């Protein structure tokens, strides 16, 4: 263990992680058992490169995010790109970074190593949102894109997302590319010494790429029919500057800002967890909205690929209610369907029909919309790497606040373009004398009322999650609470057209659905519950769907305890 730690230390160019590791090595040599345990957690395993790239705490060792790990990843990815390039073609990579700790240095390390390995490397001109990087891969016709971000993870985390150009159209990697890249990274880690990796000169992109993203995103909106009194927070991330320029070009009045959260700040000082879904994260936005009597709150997460929305609600202690990702996903899907639908609403969807898509853990409400407008509906595994690849996609979403409203421009979730689409919708509704709350009611009256809930259990040992999944498979429940199970779909070996995934889908006799899966990015077991009611008045539909949701929530908590 000490030999591995010293070898790592000899490669590390970062004074901070050098000092950290040297202190640990000295403590272990002095017999400190706590330090030894700490060293084991860093060196017994390695952050695995997968379809989500890399993500973890910034610290020393192969099981953490640091300059050694990122350098090895860059060198391995460069080898992969060279090997898959056509003869005589120089592969290219465009690299973006957000405002998190070490994002800029990880990005410049990547650019220099890529260039040294014979890949044309282009660094975006400054810290920018993830959607701009996803756009740039297609706009610059790059072979690959790398975004240095940990999105909405804790402050001391960072990550490394990879997109592929060409036939992948700028979407995130999927299998088998992840395995091929991972193999090259592991080869570099085994055979190469990071200080000896060749470095080269890289390009810095002109502002033109940002202006092109702004123009394409602003074009999603028509001239506002009514201006909206909105509040915006960037959650200490990089969203505001780009969002501001998009809104100005689209003709919207600028929102009132949550000033304390508007500038990028890697410490995220006003939130315990920089995720709009977490309790307390939007408290300052609610406070600002009350001060100005806002009709709408829009929030991006730190890299601006997600969008949170809140509307006035007198029954709430804050005066506002954050809509769930499923609610926003359904109403943006309705808007997209209405704009794109065939004049013949009775048309039978075909392979060439425009498609609505969402992940398997997202609300079935989008399926009802697709059916009503003669559009295809497709379910995918979790992640926009799958949603974005649906043929003839016109709109896709994921319940975790991710929306893709402009698949011809960006092949990833985009919190800025989603904000433009939502503001356009609210503007239209206001001109008609109604609100987003009223639109949600109209949705429930037209398609049925859908309710959703989620249980998230954080664990200290990942083996705990495996044990729960095994128990559910070996002793499948006949009831969840008092509601009888109809059937259970196991995605472990694949299901239908979907590839294998560690997911269970429990179908109930009342039409409700429960999904159980381990989180792909955090040590959590996640349970997604969806109920619906299409009978009776709006009030009766809401009550029935909520009663089923409450029953299934109690039942699932008992089953996974």
UniProtKB/TrEMBL annotation:
Its cofactor is Mg(2+). It holds the Pfam family PGM_PMM_III. GO terms for molecular function: magnesium ion binding; phosphopentomutase activity. Gene3D superfamilies: Alpha-D-Glucose-1,6-Bisphosphate, subunit A, domain 3, Alpha-D-phosphohexomutase, C-terminal domain. InterPro entries: A-D-PHexomutase_a/b/a-I, A-D-PHexomutase_a/b/a-I/II/III, A-D-PHexomutase_a/b/a-II, A-D-PHexomutase_a/b/a-III, A-D-PHexomutase_C, A-D-PHexomutase_C_sf, A-D-PHexomutase_CS. Transmembrane segments: none annotated. Residues 47-187, 218-310, 354-439 form the Alpha-D-phosphohexomutase alpha/beta/alpha domain. It comes from the Bacteria. Residues 486-534 form the Alpha-D-phosphohexomutase C-terminal domain. Keywords: Isomerase, Magnesium, Metal-binding, Phosphoprotein. Signal peptide: none annotated. GO terms for biological process: carbohydrate metabolic process; purine ribonucleoside salvage. Belongs to the phosphohexose mutase family. This is Phospho-sugar mutase. It comes from Cryobacterium glaciale.
